[in-house]
Amino acid sequence: MLISDDSSVQENHVRHDKKKDKLALFKHTFTTMTVVGCWQPLSWLSPIKYKLYSIYTLFLTLMLLIFAISQFMIIVLNAANPEDFTSVLYMMTAMCMGIFKISNMWLNRKNYADIINTLIDEPFRPVIADEIKIRQNFDRMIWNNTLFCLVLVGSTCGIIVLTSLFTNFRTGELTYKAWLPFNYSSPALFFFVYTHQLISIITGALVNLACDCFICGLLLHICCQIEILDYRLNKSHTWENLRNCVRHHDLIFKLVS
Asked: How far apart are CA 223 and CA 221, in angstroms?
């Protein structure tokens, strides 16, 4: 009974450590992804919360889709000159990329979750202090990259919004030219369409940012595993360690694929 209890406590301790690792991995990137509907919070396990978050994701996706369609229609119907064409095409492409990325993250969420679970499991999980330090260095690198991109994207969106408020909004013009199947000249409809454009721009920028940082983070974690493997190879030259390193190396290739 004592042995069984000890093993149970140890198993619970390992499970708790894995849960902490899962929450710590891509922590800041997941926060951004959660805000823009790309990643459901791990604590939202009830069916009601799952449906609510699904509705939220669908709402954001529809916002981006409507904006992209309005841009596409103005290219087809009202592209007056090359400058207007390239400006509208740029925003339409950005929105389409955002729609693709948010849909991809939602449809393949289980696959991404499996990859994350693999990274916190043996043999990928760092064991000793030096290995933990290696992963902490890469975690810091991922956070710095995410923060740097967030500052750039946030500053750009802020400048666009402020510039638009002081110029377009005062003159009754939309931030970006768009074709709509109704007349938005009335103040209420103009405010609705104007607000929709600004929210769509910010949402699309954050979706692209979050998904790009997540994929970049996965690549950096592969580099982290290679560095941990290099450390383990240099640490000991026993047959057992060599066998474990070969297995680790093989699993890294499988993880990448």
From this structure: 5
Q: What is the pLDDT of residue 4?
A: 42
Q: Which residues, 6 or more positions from 37, have their beta carbon under 8 angstroms from its beta carbon?
A: 53, 56, 57, 59, 60, 61, 102, 106, 207
pLDDT in tens, 151-198: 999 999 999 999 999 888 888 888 888 888 888 888 899 999 999 999
pLDDT band at 9 (very low <50, low <70, confident <90, very high): very low
Whole-model pTM: value is 0.83
What angle do helix axes 187-235 and 82-107 make, rounded to 10 degrees? 60
Q: What is the dihedral of CA 9, 46, 118, 30, to 10 degrees?
A: -120
Question: How far, in Å, CA of 74 to CA of 3, rounded?
Answer: 72
Q: How far is CA 252 from the centre of its chain?
A: 22
Give 3-state DSSP helix, strand, coil % of the chain, rounded to 5. 80, 0, 20
Give how far Cα 221 sits from Cα of 4, 15, 116, 136, Å.
36, 21, 10, 11
Within 25-167, residue ranges assigned H as helices are: 27-35, 47-78, 82-107, 109-119, 129-166
Prior bond to 181 cis, omega within 30?
no
Is 218 within 8 Å of 117 (Cβ atoms)? no
Q: Which distant-in-sequence residues (6+ apart) come within 8 Å of 59 by Cβ? A: 37
Query: What is d(CA 250, CA 68) in angstroms, rounded to the nearest whole number?
Result: 43
